[in-house]
Design brief:
about 260 residues; alpha+beta; 2 domains; globular; 3 helices
């Protein structure tokens, strides 16, 4: 009889273990496939947040896209579903990732829950923090989506930024220096926290500016960021137009938080 009870207990424990295992859902981690990058937009002078999506690896096609859906759930949670990479059979071959722009909108300061699903089979949670000085996103690891940078510093109001490329031509090098000297007279120095501001990286409290995706040699460019008040915009535009007309080969790439690109 004792052996019977011991056997019965063993069977019950085995059954309980099987039931426990059947109720446990194991979601495997997947290899990271996509970068998510925070980006500020200043269109028409209105600030909003975008998420830039791109594949980590090249898809071998130029202008490849990413199919996704985005919505606000219950007014607070940001829900993103990445469905598939979009390429055409006759695309131009290129060593490029697929890209997409997710327009999030204008956000008040606070914490926002984030839910990201990959191909409707895997879901990871995260948090977006919004403050006066920065955006910050955190996403659970193993979900296939990786923040390119967790923190994006917000551009101060009335910021002007850009670079001048003299392309290694001596006469244009002098013109670039003259342009910047005149720009300093009608704008103001601006101190920035070191970090990433979307369009550029700030170093040495904003005295040094680096454009990660600049389409020119760093040795031939003069980069800057300054404070530009609304009443001095006309003077800056006149300065830019004068140098462009006088030095046609001098390349000026300039933007501002008013939503203008010159």
């Amino acid at each position: 009889m004792t052996k019977f009870y011991l056997g019965l207990i063993g069977v019950l424990l085995l059954a309980a273990g099987c039931n426990l295992d059947s109720d446990t859902v194991v979601v495997p981690d997947v290899e990271d496939e996509f970068y998510l990058e925070l980006a500020e937009d200043f269109e028409n002078g209105n600030r909003s947040l975008n998420w830039k999506l791109r594949t980590i690896e090249s898809v071998g096609c130029e202008d490849a896209g990413i199919d996704y859906t985005f919505h606000w759930q219950e007014g607070q949670t940001l829900v993103l579903s990445i469905n598939q990479v979009l390429t055409s059979s006759d695309c131009d071959p290129a060593d490029e990732p697929a890209r997409a722009l997710v327009e999030i909108g204008t956000l008040s300061n606070g914490f926002y829950p984030v839910s990201i699903a990959l191909r409707e089979t895997l879901e990871r949670e995260g948090t977006l923090r919004v403050s006066d000085s920065f955006f910050q996103i955190e996403i659970e690891s193993g979900g296939g989506v990786l923040p390119l940078r967790e923190r994006l510093f917000r551009m101060p109001e009335h910021t002007l930024w850009g670079y001048i490329d003299h392309q290694g031509i001596d006469s244009l090098s002098n013109a670039a220096a003259d342009f910047y000297a005149e720009l300093e007279q009608i704008t103001e120095r601006q101190v920035l926290t070191d970090g990433h501001y979307g369009f550029f990286e700030s170093r040495n409290n904003g005295d040094e500016i680096f454009f990660p995706e600049i389409a020119a040699s760093v040795s031939t460019t003069l980069a800057f960021q300054r404070t530009l008040t609304a009443d001095r915009k006309g003077a800056v535009i006149e300065l830019i137009n004068t140098y462009r007309e006088t030095y046609e080969e001098l390349r000026l790439v300039i933007g501002n938080t008013y939503g203008e690109a010159w």
